Amino acid sequence: FQSGLEMHCWRWLSAYLLKIDLEPSIKEPAKKEVLMKNCASVFVTFHQSVMDASNKMLLEMKRHNYVTPTNYLELVTGYISMLGDKRKELGDAAKKLRNGLF
């Protein structure tokens, strides 16, 4: 079951991830594809966790939980935003080390 889910997520996310550039410094298409597959694998884990939590909620609380593709796109957008913030933070720290504290 998971390999089918992984394949579905990979197809769905690859179309979206091709439109954005997660790592601009990577120029080789093969390395970008590996990055996209790894990113898709993380989202497969997210999806599986959400499915497990939804099933648990249904069993314990008798309530259905619906997660739409928009929720996953918001997650990707948030991830990209956080990645940019962390890159800037790391770049600033590296610049400080190279140039001194002032």
SSE map:
Blueprint: H1 2-17, H2 29-61, H3 69-99
Helix pairs in contact: 1-2
Give an account of the 3D structure.
The termini are far apart. With 102 residues, the protein is an all-alpha fold. The relative contact order is 0.10. The chain contains 3 helices and no strands. Helix 1 (2-17) packs across helix 2. It has helices spanning 2-17, 29-61, 69-99.
Low-pLDDT residue spans: none
Question: What's the tally of helices?
Answer: 3
* Pattern of helices and strands: HHH
Mean pLDDT: 77
The assigned structural class equals mainly alpha
Q: Which overall shape is indicated by the principal axes computed on the Cα atoms? A: elongated
Portion of residues within helices: over 70%
Largest sheet: none
Strand content: under 5%
Query: Count the strands?
Result: 0
Radius of gyration equals: 18 Å
Distance between the termini: 55 Å
Please outline what is shown here.
The chain is mainly α. 78% of the residues lie in helices and 0% in strands.
For the structure shown, list the relevant keywords:
102 residues; mainly alpha; 3 helices; elongated
